[in-house]
């Protein structure tokens, strides 16, 4: 059993190094599309690309966003977490898998979309404060995905402010503050639930 734990920790470290190589490969690919044969980038691509291509074939595209690297990272981190936990404690419990599910649901689903919405709201904030009509129109069009949240905030404003339409600036900034509070609130909640799950003995 001790030997298995050491083997699990060894492979967990290898996956950790491999994750770093994937990050480096993705960052370099923004600048070097076709690496020169014999270069370091070329050999890095030979090591990393076969794994990334397993997910690229699934066409995980939403608009212009490619989610395949995120899914690839999630799979590696999942396996790494399992190996790390087994290597440290010598067992895998139901509580650990519940903890893992909560952490991955938060880390790769909820938090990602909240951060994305936050970026779009920041762009919208720049748009409502911009004095350039073209810049403002382009940024507003780019941040249309957060319109449902903005509309909810606007309806709340209208409920308390009977006379007149609420200003776009006040609504956008309020939506951004609500999103930040939601992010930290959910992060605390998922961390707390995760700690409870790890206490499950089976």
Task: Report on the architecture of this protein.
This protein is mainly α and 202 residues long. Helices cover 78% and strands 2% of the residues. It has 2 domains: 1-92, no CATH class; 93-202, no CATH class. The protein is built from 7 helices and 2 strands, in the order ααββααααα.
Gyration radius, in Å:
22 Å
Task: Tell me the domain tally.
Answer: 2
- Overall outline: flat
Low-confidence stretches: none
Instruction: Count every helix, treating DSSP H or I runs of 4 or more residues as helices.
Output: 7
Describe what is shown at a glance.
This protein is mainly alpha-helical and 202 residues long.
Layout of helices and strands:
Layout: H1 2-29, H2 40-56, E1 61-62, E2 65-66, H3 68-89, H4 94-129, H5 133-142, H6 147-160, H7 168-198
Antiparallel strand pairs: 1-2
Features:
202 residues; mainly alpha; two-stranded antiparallel sheet; 2 strands; 2% strand
